[in-house]
Amino acid sequence: MTDSALPSYYPEFYSFPPFFTRQPNAASWSSQLSQWRAFILAYCRAHKIWRLNLLDALDSPLFHNKAINRKLPLPVIREIITDLTASSNAEWTSPDKSAAYIFWRTPDDFATLLYTYLDDTGQKGTVLTLHELTDGDNTTSQEWYGMEQAMLVRCLNVLVKRGVAQVFSVGEDKGVKVW
Amino acid sequence: MAFRKLDLTPALRPLLLPNETLLFVQDAVGLYEGRYKVPNYQNGSAYLTTHRICFINNDEPRRYSAALELKDVKKFELYNGFLKSSPKITLYLRPSDPSLLNLGGRSASRSPTYTPVQTPPRSSTPSQSIGINRQWICPICTFPNPFPSNFGPASPIPPCLTCGVKPNRSVLDAVMNASGPTPKPTSQPSSDSALLQAGIDRSKNACPRCTFINDHALRNCEICGEVLSSDDIDESLSTGGARSRNESPGPAYLGSIPPSEQIDSVKLSFRGGGERSYMEKLKGAMTQRKWLLEQAPVVPTITSGAANLTLDSRDNDPTLLNSTPEVTERIIGVRGLERQSRNLRMNNERTIAGAFEDLEALMSRAKEIIALAESFATQLSDNPSLANSDATEALNNSANLLALRPTDFTVTKDQISSSSSTSTSLYHAELARSIADFLADDRRSILKKEGGAITLVDLWAIYNRARGIELISPSDLENAAKLFDKLQLPVRLRQFKSGLLVIQERNRTDEKVAKSVLAWLDTLADVNTWDLKTDRRWGKSILARDAAEKFGWSIAVATEELEMVEERGALCREVGIEGVRWWKNPWMPDQ
């Protein structure tokens, strides 16, 4: 098996067996960790995975290289995701750390993207539902399309903090107004 | 010269002669020649062996070590020490060695470092420096009393040691005013002793005290023991203080002794105690006189016993009837060869039977038995049918073990004095030295076989096996191993991250190990990869057991070494079902 068969976001180390073992050597581990971080984010982005359920992901190609029959153990995955949360690239959905939201862009970046989009499309001052933003017909080409609502709220809160948006409830749904 | 050069082992212990055994060791010992301390020989260990007394300086063992043959020792006595004076053992040397008393060779040498034990205080009296060896003769009982070293015009007159009567001051003045250790005709011919000496014909080397005319070569009067002197000695004495030697070239000139001093004794000063046990062992060694064994006729060997046997059996065995006397004369053809080997076998049988009869015999026959075992071993390995059998290996091993002279490596607690407070640490130090010697021994090359590192546990087993008796405890071994660094031995104790203790050669560094492992990995990369699914560009991986096999390490050592290399960043690991696999680390930028 060669790398050419794999999409480009797979790192070259994907075929290196020690890649699937946490290196005790601090220097090695920091390189290994950064490679894993980049790989997880790229993988989720390519597969549009917003919420990563660790148990399900264990056997996915992300953590399991079937070609060389190597798996990344769960505790190591947890360690890497925890490291991702430190840089706002991930967020545990629950305290038991069984699943995590993966922000392949940080909430700040998404907020900027959203604001630019709304500005470009002249929707400033209009009230939009969150559903419209994540699943509307107009946003299919946008990066946040299909994003979980909880994550979107996280991104919109950044805008609220910047003082350019307001989030409010419209019945069961939530709405947002940007100005 | 009483002292001889001493060869040291790599571990800085005395190199023993064949048949020589170590009996005792005492540290904190200083050396005296006659009454004078020998410079640079004041803090060391005194090894007592069956043949010698070896002194090894603690700080510069290679430069300052010397041996004294016990056969040169005439008698010895113990001085118990008094106040600040340490206990000493005085060894009186046999004057039969002509070089021992030949003072002429070094009469002029008087280095500035020389320090007499009882240096007379420098007072105003100019003549006091020559008062050391002088005597005054009691006019009452004629006993020669020692001249008081700090005698001056104002000092009180000492009484005679024998009769207790104080002499007339003029008697002492006469001696003091004499111009040398041996009075010459003086300017005061009025005194009794001066008058006496004036009449002596000095050219014939006459004794100044009893007037006996001695041989020229003699240094002491044959009759009364008075120190004789001649003009050249006097001259050297007067000029000797100005001359100096740059440095002692070696043990050949241990110290610099004033020419007037006659060196027929050597003292060991026991500053740390332990003189009694040393004395006892010395007594034992002097009584046994093991050094005589070398010249002694060889103990009747088994061969003679075997000859008796053949004589007995000759009557029954017709083939042997006329063979025995001719064995040495001629051996012809196959039959002769057969006969020769049969005789040999018979001898061997006798040897073995005789040796194992009782332990005593075994000890005395040890050498023969070892030689036999070795010859059996070579015979076995030559024999192709047995070449691969376990028996060969077992026999080889046992032969190897026997071939080791256990005495070389055996330090026991009773060789170390128990009186001194530092005895346990001295014991450990000696043990450390003996272990270092054991490891450095070429015949066994233990460290080489173990790939340069041996775990403490393995060493304990091997070492105790080599000792056979007087086994040491693991804690003693550990304590001894901890002293390797302090004693500057060629091996060192190393603790791995996990706590595993190994002993390795001093020059073996982590860097070297890492380099050799990496080089080995590179050569392996050319071979077909073990796992075809793995990408070739990652090179080959190894298990700890592969490394153990390659470098001769034990598995534990191999694991630790690989982890050490990982720590340095050259390797990375992969934990799989078969254990930890090791790969070259591609994450390190410098690799």
From TrEMBL, chain A:
Subcellular localization: Cytoplasm
Cross-referenced InterPro entries: ESCRT-II_cplx_Vps25-sub (IPR008570), ESCRT-II_cplx_Vps25-sub_N (IPR014041), WH-like_DNA-bd_sf (IPR036388), WH_DNA-bd_sf (IPR036390)
GO MF term set: protein homodimerization activity; structural molecule activity
Keyword field contains tRNA-binding: no
Coiled-coil ranges (or none): none
GO cellular component labels: ESCRT II complex
GO biological process terms on file: macroautophagy; protein transport to vacuole involved in ubiquitin-dependent protein catabolic process via the multivesicular body sorting pathway
Keyword tags: Cytoplasm, Protein transport, Transport
PANTHER family, per database record: VACUOLAR PROTEIN SORTING-ASSOCIATED PROTEIN VPS25, VACUOLAR PROTEIN-SORTING-ASSOCIATED PROTEIN 25
Family to which this protein belongs: Belongs to the VPS25 family.
Protein name, as recorded: Vacuolar protein-sorting-associated protein 25
Originating species: Orbilia brochopaga
TrEMBL record, chain B:
Domain of life: Eukaryota
Bias kind Low complexity: ranges: 115-129
PROSITE patterns: GLUE (PS51495)
Record keyword Nucleotidyltransferase present: no
Family matches, as Gene3D superfamilies: 6.10.140.260, Pleckstrin-homology domain (PH domain)/Phosphotyrosine-binding domain (PTB) (2.30.29.30), Winged helix-like DNA-binding domain superfamily/Winged helix DNA-binding domain (1.10.10.10), Zn-finger domain of Sec23/24 (2.30.30.380)
GO biological process: protein transport to vacuole involved in ubiquitin-dependent protein catabolic process via the multivesicular body sorting pathway
Single annotated GO MF: ubiquitin binding
A Pfam family the protein falls into: Vps36-NZF-N
Span of domain GLUE N-terminal: 6-298
Residues covered by region (Disordered): 104-129, 235-258
Keywords: Coiled coil, Cytoplasm, Endosome, Protein transport, Transport
The keyword Coiled coil is assigned to this record: yes
InterPro entries the record matches: GLUE_dom (IPR021648), PH-like_dom_sf (IPR011993), Snf8/Vps36 (IPR040608), Vps36 (IPR037855), Vps36-NZF-N (IPR031558), WH-like_DNA-bd_sf (IPR036388), WH_DNA-bd_sf (IPR036390), Znf_RanBP2_sf (IPR036443)
Location in the cell: Cytoplasm; Endosome
A single Gene Ontology CC term: ESCRT II complex
Protein's job: Component of the ESCRT-II complex (endosomal sorting complex required for transport II), which is required for multivesicular body (MVB) formation and sorting of endosomal cargo proteins into MVBs.
Family membership noted in the UniProt record: Belongs to the VPS36 family.
Entries under PANTHER family matching the protein: VACUOLAR PROTEIN-SORTING-ASSOCIATED PROTEIN 36
Subunit structure, as described in the record: Component of the endosomal sorting complex required for transport II (ESCRT-II).
Protein name: Vacuolar protein-sorting-associated protein 36
Species of provenance: Orbilia brochopaga
